[in-house]
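Structure (tokenized):
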């Protein structure tokens, strides 16, 4: 297995995580998905609408290529599970209308999965999730890969992963393939998914880091930069064949409740944890 190398230093009071001067050029990614539908006219004052009913507790929500919102994660009564239903909402004047609640015919429990829109088709692809025992979910993980068609809204099963994963992270690469890391059950090795070959287990040992939704981003030189909830910062090579640990955030900036977003190429805003400070 690849030997993990530790080097670098702990980054402390930064306005943003600077990833290096060589990363300031933008990645060119070819977008093959159709244009989104025209947005619904909004109040220019930014006013919130009334609280309205939704068909379930929307634990997961994803915007599809047509501007609709796909949600799942509970039964209508709020029971934790994504095994039975999912909903596709067409935005309109009321959040209570425009719903198409469908049966999950795959019977894969989608609770605490990861979801991305495929770069090639625009379909929503979902990795992993939970397990329904007959009475409840067991908060472990499954290796399934599920897909919801952007054209029809129908759900289907794809060939699965090599590891069960619960709370994993997926990252779309510049070529449209997907890098999958972490999730309970898949702590040891990540996987690489392509439309042609499905999921392939990678020879990179990630067991040093927390499996709980790693915060991963493609940076301008093609590598992945990641921040694990336990503070480890690392790079995954562009070829997806090596891991390089470059430091660890201070204790107060660690935690599963941290949030990160890449707000411009090569710069990540990271906040939350055990402090009100922002990196």
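Design, position by position:
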């Amino acid at each position: 297995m690849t030997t993990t190398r530790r080097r670098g230093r702990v980054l402390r009071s930064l306005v943003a995580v600077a990833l290096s001067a060589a990363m300031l050029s933008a990645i060119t990614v070819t977008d093959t998905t159709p244009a989104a539908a025209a947005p619904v006219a909004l109040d220019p004052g930014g006013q919130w609408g009334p609280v309205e009913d939704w068909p379930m507790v929307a634990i997961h929500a994803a915007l599809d290529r047509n501007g609709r919102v796909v949600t799942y994660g509970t039964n209508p009564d709020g029971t934790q599970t994504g095994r039975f239903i999912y909903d596709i909402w067409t935005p309109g004047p009321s959040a209570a209308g425009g719903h198409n609640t469908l049966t999950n015919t795959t019977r894969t429990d989608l609770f605490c999965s990861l979801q991305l829109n495929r770069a090639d088709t625009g379909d929503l692809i979902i990795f992993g999730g939970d397990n329904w025992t007959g009475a409840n979910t067991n908060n472990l993980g499954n290796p399934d890969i599920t897909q919801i068609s952007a054209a029809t809204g129908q759900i289907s099963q794809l060939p699965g992963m090599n590891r069960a994963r619960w709370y994993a992270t997926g990252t779309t690469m510049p070529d449209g393939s997907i890098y999958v890391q972490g999730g309970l059950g898949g702590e040891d090795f990540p996987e690489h998914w392509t439309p042609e070959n499905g999921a392939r287990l990678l020879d990179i040992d990630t067991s040093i880091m927390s499996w709980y939704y790693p915060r991963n981003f493609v940076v301008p030189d093609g590598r992945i930069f990641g921040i694990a909830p336990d503070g480890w910062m690392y790079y995954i090579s562009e070829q997806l064949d090596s891991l390089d640990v470059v430091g660890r955030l201070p204790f107060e900036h660690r935690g599963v409740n941290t949030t990160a977003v890449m707000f411009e190429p090569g710069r990540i805003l990271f906040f939350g944890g055990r402090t009100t400070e922002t990196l």
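Reviewer-requested clarification: Confidence is low (pLDDT under 50) at residues 1-34. The chain has no helices and 20 strands.
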